[in-house]
Amino acid sequence: MNAITSAVWSRRPQTSVRIVDAHAHAGPYSLFFIPEASPDAMVRVMDRCGVAHAVISSHLAIQLDAAAGNAATAEAVGRAPDRFTGYLTVNPWQDPDGELARWGDDPRFGGIKLHPDLHDYPLTGRRYAGVWEFARRTGCPVLTHTYDGSPYNDLDEVDAVAAEHPDVVIIAGHAGATPLGFDRAVEVAQRRPGVILEVCGSFNTGPDIARMVRELGPDRVVYGSDFPFIDLRISLGRVIFSGLAETDQAAVLGATMTRLLQWRSGQG
């Protein structure tokens, strides 16, 4: 039994590994109620579990209003910069280049968030051109929603973008989201070295995560939760009890994402 597992069974926060949640949100969602969705409430759960940091985009930004939502993300990060880093949400229909210009140099943001399914716009569309250029120039990672079979962010879309922009780090949110999607996500990541798989979602399991790490390596897979949309403890438990070696587990839980967030120190 390793230190993290021991902490879980002892019902105490783990302190042996720096855990970074690579896929989180904050705030209310318009379609259904999410209890305790504020950043302060999220920190209380993070403390309970020993999660050091989370990379967040506000639900407002990804769904209804990118400009107001990005401002809310920046405010949340500004209040707790030791616990949060922001994703700059780019909605292709809501002044994408303007949002990049407004927030691209703001150190509160450590990544870009795309949600083609919610925005009804394909990942390969030309309105994202500024995103890929910014990411190529700076090293900023781009987290995109993925879902197998989607007309907007299927794994074929990820594959095409990664082929066109081989120098960009693309974090495939949900790793395709379904069992078939996991297979296809692994295949895309094997072809495209810039693709990182993120593991949150309703269908992912410990054995799925272990296979991703086995076939790609621990530097190509990151823990994420979709918190507070989904409770972070669900995705966290899958990684903790997936049977990974301690060094691989530490990389997936935080070390790999920590490295990806260091791009500003070497920008340009």
TrEMBL record:
<protein>
    <submittedName>
        <fullName>Amidohydrolase family protein</fullName>
    </submittedName>
</protein>
<dbReference type="InterPro" id="IPR032465">
    <property type="entry name" value="ACMSD"/>
</dbReference>
<dbReference type="GO" id="GO:0019748">
    <property type="term" value="P:secondary metabolic process"/>
</dbReference>
<dbReference type="InterPro" id="IPR032466">
    <property type="entry name" value="Metal_Hydrolase"/>
</dbReference>
<dbReference type="GO" id="GO:0005737">
    <property type="term" value="C:cytoplasm"/>
</dbReference>
<dbReference type="Pfam" id="PF04909">
    <property type="entry name" value="Amidohydro_2"/>
</dbReference>
<dbReference type="InterPro" id="IPR006680">
    <property type="entry name" value="Amidohydro-rel"/>
</dbReference>
<dbReference type="GO" id="GO:0016831">
    <property type="term" value="F:carboxy-lyase activity"/>
</dbReference>
<keyword id="KW-0378">Hydrolase</keyword>
<dbReference type="GO" id="GO:0016787">
    <property type="term" value="F:hydrolase activity"/>
</dbReference>
<feature type="domain" description="Amidohydrolase-related">
    <location>
        <begin position="20"/>
        <end position="261"/>
    </location>
</feature>
